[in-house]
Design goal:
This protein has helices at 44-53, 70-81, 98-103, 130-155, 159-167, 174-180, 207-222, 236-249, 261-278, and strands at 29-38, 41-42, 58-68, 86-96, 108-111, 116-119, 170-173, 185-186. With 279 residues, it is α/β, with parallel strands linked by helices. The chain has a single domain, classed as 2-enoyl-CoA Hydratase, Chain A, domain 1 (Alpha-Beta Complex), CATH 3.90.226.10. α2 links the parallel β3 (58-68) and β4 (86-96). The longest helix has 26 residues, at 130-155.
């Protein structure tokens, strides 16, 4: 996740797209498709405007994104979290970096078969004087601490533990995301009717602009410590800490297993409680 406000140069020019209209939409379910880079190709301001105009009672967010602009990700997370509709986030492939923050707004967070989630500290590409770089580092720390609080609010645990997991660049399979409390279930996602849209259609989808966004996605991936979940170490320390915390609260607690119906219900109840607190 890269805070746009600190990026000096190197970001591609935005793709052209049409602006959403002022017309209020009245579909029962609003589909949002978050495929691509947040802030470049996924136009968060357009999506938030669309959210303000919909009377839908359900919002379905399909995610496959390496992340992108951290501030845009936080803005969309908050817009979804405070929306009165029931929000279902479906991670179709990857919810990394800022995309994982957006996913935390779901009343349901469903990891598709083989889907992956990744959390890490905010980063920036810049040049400047020593004082400017120190200021940037302080800004990044503040930003990352806020993001850690988002994960803690969703899943429980101390924000400091989540910050440690972010600094380590933690990759989670669907099952691990559920165990950590960052998702509610793992499921094969059914085909659904209706075309998703990202809050603003591309006008013309020029090849050059598309290539620029693809190049940006590649550069984001290149900055990661681990080349995907298969290359990353298991999130053992994070899961052990969360499990130990549960044991401190309930000495009779047994280790979490995905197949344990009692534990699944406990997680579901916790998710529902957290969703109520966010309203």
């Amino acid at each position: 996740m890269r805070p746009r406000a600190l990026v000096r140069a190197g970001a591609p020019r935005p793709q052209a797209r049409t602006r959403p209209t002022n017309e209020t939409t009245s579909e029962e379910t609003l589909d949002l498709l978050l495929y691509g880079v947040i802030g470049w190709g996924i136009w968060v301001e357009d999506i938030i405007f669309q959210l303000s105009r919909t009377t839908a009672t359900r919002i379905r967010v399909s995610v496959n994104s390496p992340g992108g602009d951290a501030f845009d990700g936080i803005a969309l997370y908050n817009a979804l979290a405070k929306h009165p509709a029931h929000v279902r986030v479906e991670v179709d492939g990857l919810a990394a970096s800022a995309a994982s923050v957006i996913a935390m707004a779901g009343d349901e967070i469903v990891m598709g078969t083989g889907a992956t989630m990744m959390i890490h500290d905010a980063s920036v590409t810049m040049q400047g004087s020593a004082s400017e770089l120190r200021q940037a580092a302080e800004t990044l720390d503040t930003l990352s601490e806020g993001i850690a609080a988002v994960y803690a609010r969703r899943a429980g645990g101390d924000p400091g533990v989540w910050r440690e997991a972010m600094l380590a660049e933690t990759w989670l399979s669907g099952e691990e995301a559920v165990e950590a409390g960052l998702a509610t279930t793992v499921a094969a996602l059914d085909q659904h009717d209706g075309d998703g849209n990202g809050g603003g259609a591309e006008a013309g989808s020029e090849d050059e602009a598309t290539d620029q966004v693809l190049d940006l996605a590649s550069s984001i991936r290149a900055s990661w410590t681990w080349d995907g979940r298969d290359a990353a170490p298991p999130p053992t320390r994070l899961l052990r800490h969360l499990h130990n915390q549960d044991q401190d609260r309930d000495r009779d607690h047994t280790p979490f297993t995905i197949d344990d119906e009692t534990e699944q219900q406990r997680v579901s109840d916790l998710r529902a409680a957290l969703a109520t607190l966010r309203r």
